[in-house]
Write a structure and sequence with these properties.
This is Transporter. By secondary structure, this protein is mainly alpha-helical. The chain has eight helices and no strands. Helix content is 82%, strand content 0%. The N and C termini lie far apart (43 Å).
Amino acid sequence: MVDDERSPTPEEVLRVIKEQNSATVRLLGGNPMLVYVPWGVAWLLGFTAYFLHLGLSGEPYAPISEGQALGVLMVGLIVAGAVSARGYARSSKLVRGDSSARGTMYGLAFFAGMMLMAIIAGRISPHLPPGESGLLWAGMSMMVVATLYMAGGAIWLNWPMFFAGVWVAVVNGVGVVLGAAWHALLMAVLVGGGFIVFGLWLRRRG
């Protein structure tokens, strides 16, 4: 009997192990197209609507009301959350033990942080002018996002995620200092657009 199947060489075995390890890391570590791109699109559209409503000179650039801008942002965030949650649910089926527990606690922390932000902002914002009230909500919500992206990077030793959080924190801080219109513009271009580009680059880089 002739065996046509030769035994793999050590180099081939190592190559297969490396390829499978990389595939597993991509699967369990999160698809950058789900971690960054949906949120980037939501922030790009939502904050662009706010920017067009506010205008740098105080005059709107487009006939968009504050309620309509908020609606665009909220719909975008809901869709982004649904897309990301579905992707996480699919990958978490393959994860058990500590990794699954970390992911669950991280998701709960994100929810709790946003709820606490809403309570604080809702208590303070009625005492502020309309423009400053909107800036409070936007600045505090992006502060929560920045903090939890950095925390997520620390939990999973994910440097891209950590630096994404740092980027959001820096841009958010600069925008708050400059005012509501500039904050909306910077959030749309540098955070929304930046997350889209970052996610696509990470996907391409593999």
